[in-house]
Specification:
This protein is α+β, with helices and mostly antiparallel strands. It has 19 helices and 21 strands. The protein folds into three domains: 169 residues, no CATH class; 105 residues, Alpha Horseshoe (MgtE N-terminal fold), CATH 1.25.60.10; 108 residues, CBS-domain (Roll), CATH 3.10.580. β9 and β10 form a beta hairpin.
Length: 430
């Protein structure tokens, strides 16, 4: 069943039943007699759509047992009714991907995928969808807490106001024994790496580690992208217990300048052993960047850029841009060099697109374009880019050969205060 189908079915069945109005209620037999107490409701995660109730944790004759949803006739306020006169009381043993709603989800933090925020499940909402009760949402506002504090006869009248559709949340389940090594967070992986990093930084260490394990999987590129967005403290926390090979796998996929920043934070005796496991091409770039102060132009620059000889045509330059495997922010500018590989000037990509495809770059190049040396201080970098309205500025060596490029996002990352996303309300905890 798709989420869309479940939403449509829920729209036709407006009744929503809070979990708090079920747990603690009576377990009744076919004749309506009370035979025990409902302690918790069980769902199985990992599928698509809204998870159905698959069973109940109950107490009968002072013994806690499991009752399958197959023998349940109805879930209602204050009770769960069975369609059989008797039940087979079996000890509860978690099956794969099973979660106890009260014990594992209620009062716990969840990930709200809209805005990438952490919220708290103050109550869990159930609704009858396609013939059976399913989890359809969570109550994150104070009404959920109030409903649980009041007697059931009164609390049941407190309707949910801050309701989040289950399709837009994911619970933390790393503490669930059957899910500890198989954490299902497929929806989180669809967020932007910066949003995932924000969630990791806002969460507890255990929750952050759960998110990092979830995105690790087969998508190593996403893992590297998230590492690039994490602050130094969290980067170090999440690589401390990893092997050198695992750290090298992350470093190999990061942008060279971000990889160099991470490697620089490693203990000196570990640095060489990690770099030895990084592919040669990436290792050479990282080692070169490690030779510069992080606050200077050389420490800020990326060694990935597009440069062509002055005799190249516009068509050749555009083909090079199309095939270049460098970050998109670097491709806003194409750099031009002479036969000695000395920087001649630069061309904005927009100018290339508008130019005659047969024209040579030397006819179009902006000569005497601003440039920096590797030991230029950050204040000089920021002033130059602001004065000339640049989105990218080249860095050259003593012979005038280009060795890297600094983009505007590199400058912003230094200038913006740490934790600015949360400070300005882009991320918050409830």
């Amino acid at each position: 069943m798709t989420v869309e189908a479940a939403q449509a079915a829920t729209a036709r069945t407006p009744e929503v039943l809070p979990l708090s109005q079920v747990v603690g209620g009576a377990l009744r037999d076919k004749e309506g007699g009370r035979i025990g107490r409902v302690d918790d409701l069980i769902v199985r995660l990992g599928g698509t759509g809204y998870p159905p109730i698959t069973g109940f944790l109950v107490t009968v004759a002072n013994r806690q047992s499991y009752v399958s949803a197959d023998v349940a006739a109805e879930i209602a306020t204050g009770c769960v009714s069975l369609h059989t006169p008797s039940i087979d009381l079996r000890p509860f043993r978690r099956r794969s991907e099973e979660v106890l709603l009260r014990a594992d989800v209620l009062d716990q933090q969840l990930i709200n995928l809209d805005g990438a925020r952490l919220v708290r499940a103050n109550d869990i909402e159930l609704a009858r969808v396609e013939g059976w009760w399913r989890v359809v949402g969570v109550e994150t506002g104070p009404r959920g807490v109030l409903r649980r504090l009041l007697p059931r006869s009164i609390g049941g009248r407190v309707e949910p106001r801050e309701f989040l559709d289950w399709a837009k949340v994911e619970p933390f389940v790393g503490h669930v024994p059957t899910l500890k090594l198989r954490v299902p967070h497929p929806k989180v992986a669809r967020l932007h790496p910066a949003e995932i990093a924000d969630l990791v930084e806002a969460a507890s260490y255990q929750q952050g580690e759960e998110i990092m394990r979830a995105i690790q999987g087969d998508d190593r590129e996403l893992e590297a992208d998230v590492f690039e967005e994490l602050d130094e403290q969290h980067q170090l926390e999440f690589i401390e217990e990893r092997s050198d090979a695992e750290v090298a796998a992350v470093v190999a996929r990061m942008a060279p300048d971000d990889a160099a920043d991470l490697v620089a934070e490693l203990e000196e005796e570990r640095r060489d052993s990690v770099l030895a496991l990084v592919p040669a091409s990436q290792r050479t770039k990282v080692r070169a960047l490690l030779g510069y102060d992080p606050g200077e132009a050389g420490g800020l620059m990326s060694p990935d850029f597009v440069a062509l000889y002055r005799q190249a045509t516009v068509a050749e330059a555009l083909d090079r841009v199309r095939s270049a495997r460098v970050p998109a922010e670097v491709l806003t500018t194409v750099f031009v060099m002479d036969s000695q590989r000395r920087l001649v000037g630069s061309l904005p990509l927009a100018e290339l697109i508008r130019a005659d495809r047969s024209a040579s770059l030397v006819e179009l190049v902006v000569r005497d374009a601003p440039r920096l040396v590797g030991d230029a201080e950050f204040e000089e970098v920021a002033r130059l880019m602001a004065d000339y309205n640049l989105t990218a500025v080249p860095v050259v060596d003593d012979d005038g050969r280009m060795i890297g490029v600094i983009t505007v996002d590199d400058v912003l990352e230094v200038m913006l205060p740490k934790g600015w996303r949360r400070r300005f309300g882009l991320l918050g905890e409830d």
